[in-house]
Amino acid sequence: xxxxxxxxGSAAPRAFPAPPAERLPVDxxxxxxxxxxxxxxxxxxxxxxxxxxxxxxxxxxxxxxxSRLCAETAAEHDDVYAGVAIxxxxxxxxxxxxxxxxxxxxxxxxxxAVGETGLDYYRDWAPKDDQHRSFRAHIDIAKRTGTALVIHxxxxxxxxxRVLAEEGxxxxxxxxxxxxxxxxxxxxxxxxxxxxxxxNVTFKNAEPVREALRVAPADLLLVETDAPFLTPIxxxxxxxxxxxxxxxxxxxxxxxxxxxxxxxxxxxANGERAFGTW
Length: 278
Ligand SMILES: [Zn+2]
Ligand SMILES: [Zn+2]
Known about the structure:
Layout: E1 28-33, H1 42-51, E2 54-60, H2 64-76, E3 80-84, H3 96-106, E4 111-120, H4 128-145, E5 148-154, H5 157-167, E6 173-175, H6 182-191, E7 194-197, H7 207-215, E8 221-223, H8 245-256, H9 260-275
Parallel strand pairs: 1-2, 2-3, 3-4, 4-5, 5-6, 6-7, 7-8
Helix pairs in contact: 2-3, 3-4, 6-7
One zinc ion (ZN) binds next to loops.
């Protein structure tokens, strides 16, 4: 793979919308990114991320074409793992044949997650019955393939937790873009669910999410961009990419009163537990 200019951290490629963040003291990884939706070549995204201490990225599918693409990208790049799934917003009439292909993709060696799946009651784009059927099927696929389950939960905390309890959660379950409060963080901690925080934790109105972060145990913490979405302050409003994760990590360390290097080390170790060793 070619290594463009940003490798030494001196300058991000010109097309990047924000200057590179200060390098993290210990390499972390981005647990949830949509590399295919960021309007920059993947190799440049990876190089820019690496130059600020984001050594690895999990790229996440939301439908069949993007899941295939994520699996291919992971197969091509050492530093990338893939998640494959049908996003809850896209589950209207989802067929067994589609789910069978998700399962076949999930069996590939660099595909380490089934996600993003879950429930989205904020954007009511798919009927709840279809969302639930698909979520339960994805939980089964994660268990059968031994992959982590990556959950999208938007305004659906109670039902997501209930379905997980009813089905039996996979050994490794990740709440992506954690949006619950402190009470929910305690439930997740009791169940050993990973909590992945995104750039929205830096937003002014996100005090409940910060309360959740304060009570979440360090050994269940992950960080993500959900790029190109949810760009952290101070670059909110610009497109997001993995090289901006240091802003979120430093903010999280501050909220938790943790040393940045200690938080980075915890995130890196948790990532290997969730998605396997690189
Ligand atoms: Zn999501
Ligand atoms: Zn996402």
